[in-house]
Amino acid sequence: MSAQLRVDIVACDGVGICAHLAPDVVRVDSWGFPILPAAPLSGAQERQARAAVTGCPRKALFLAK
Amino acid sequence: MSASLRILPDADAAGPALLDRPLHYFGAGGAITEVASDSLRDHRLRFGSRPLLGGDELIDALAEAGLTGRGGAHLPSVIKWRAVRSAAHADGAVVVANGAESEPDSRKDAALLEFRPHLVLDGLVAAATALDAREAVVWLHESASTTRAAISRALAERTDPVPVRIAVGPDRYLTGESSAIVRALSGGPALPAFRTKPSAIAGVAGRPTLVQNVETLARVALVARGFVPETTLITVVVGDARVVVEAPVSADLHDVVGRVSGLTPGAVLLGGYGGQWCAWSDVAGARLAEDDLRARGLSLGAGVVSVLPPGECGLARTSSLIAYLAEQGARQCGPCRFGLPAVADSLALLVRGGRRSRHERERLATFLSEIRGRGACGHPDGAVRMVASALSVFAGDVAAHRRGGCLMRWEPVR
Amino acid sequence: MSTVSPTRPVRTGVAVAVSGAVTGGFAGLVYTQVRGDRMAPWILGRATGVVAYLLLVALVLFGITLSHPNRALRGRSATTRMRTHVTLAVLTLAAVALHVVVLATDRYAGVGWAGALLPMNATYRPVGVTFGVLGTWLGLLAGLSAGAAGRLPARVWFPVHRVAALSFVLVLVHGLVTGWDTNLLLGMYVGTGLLVTGFAASRYAARGRR
Prior knowledge:
The complex is a heterotrimer. By secondary structure, chain A is of the alpha+beta class. The longest helix of chain A has 13 residues, at 43-55. Chain A has 2 helices and 4 strands. Chain B has 3 domains: 34-223, Rossmann fold (3-Layer(aba) Sandwich); 231-308, Ubiquitin-like (UB roll), CATH 3.10.20.600; 314-402, de novo design (two linked rop proteins). The two termini of chain B are 32 Å apart. Chain B has a 6-stranded mixed beta sheet. Helix content of chain C is 75%, strand content 0%. Chain C contains 8 helices and no strands.
């Protein structure tokens, strides 16, 4: 299952819950916005990513194949 | 700057030149003193009577001529045309002549719209009929009153099979961005859209939309008459002056820019505020042709060449450019809204120099790498590219500023 | 990206052990000092209440900055912000728990366990205490909803989390009714109440987009 975590950067408000829920996937830039890996996620990373997608208060994250 | 510059080809196959002579504009937003628009009669005398090619024939001719757009990607125009053609819609397509020359220093579109309105309109109407469009729009900045008057006068002289109207957008940098145009014409704000479907398929009000630069449409009109255009329009910027020059694509960049500007630049900014700085020696031997420049990792973009005279500080100039770009962002996404002002502030600190700025070079590099590729549209990427190229080309100056000085007499770093 | 280093659980364990020991030490010391003193539990109950309230104010203010439009308030690192918010929540919970335990076990307070945990069950100022009871349960709900952020979709947990606002109001009223016996305390409640309300208003007023 090769999924990629992506962000709708216009909807994102830089709150940072994704970085808290998916510390092994999400890195945060100098202004609080997520820097996401281009590579497909491993199993453990995908679990964290799903939590981040679910937890985002702006619904800005999504998983793409 | 010489007004009697003869740098145009004599070949007949290329067709008549777009402009008689280099056009001199002065000052930001300054208009040329006397606008001599071609009337319909002048137009027919100059370029010949109505276009011959239409429909599929025209599209094939465009493919053969290798006509490209002048937006960021310089794609072959025929790709967009074919995409619009094959996307069927009950309400027909929309074609837009993008005359919102959002590069503040560019004047070539204004020149074409003011001096050769009928040629541009011919191209627009040819596109409309070839693509089954029921609507044609000329898109301009609000404040471009001279241009608007010229187009209105020209429209009054014509009867076209497709209704052509003028639409205006705000006087901002992003008004010329194609997704912003589509959004504005669909009733929204003139800001870039973070969209999934390209506008060729679903643009204005969901209809297939072609947004084409004014210069490209002028060349479409030439191709429709059976000519194979060989020239390109560039705006050479020196200080307050902007000179629109037409030259063959095979012309030598050093030759054209050197003669028009009347000096040997220290460095040039190619492609406008979101383009790239290069040392004058870096473009020795380069031609105006996009392929040649791309092979060197450069591009003319909207055709603006900004000259940095020897003795002017490139970092200071870059600082004011990035401040402008930061202010002109759409404020729609974080990396641009917060990142570009951070870059502007950091560069300003670097220019000011002194002890406080000793870590600024590293901070700036971090910001640039964080912003690159992460905006909702291409605006932050252009800004980052411009600043990164400045830091590379003016590296010696960066070191000098950190020590509290300035090279002033610019020298290339090897 | 933070990779969990092998020393992190060890460092966390040591930190917990040390803080637990220090807290336990002080608690034991206080207990030996006040055992038998009738007024001590009462004062302790009010003291823990004030501490819990102040921590709650910090927690709510910090929570508002997380999505406040004025980004200068947010500081630099998003991970640090989130961790600080969680830490404040844990500390607030601990302080409230202490407050409840002290009052519930104080024979002379007129609250008891039933009064501390259930509405309208206290003998002393039942209405005032009830505000505190409800405020605490709602606060707990706010904390749990945030804890479930990874499992519940945001459209579910985030609105539930906002019950924290109501929780704060209830706790503030509780403080004014049962916790005010000096003008200083009154000033503190009114001042912090205005501060939190004003700050929340500034966050939601600028929401042209959100």
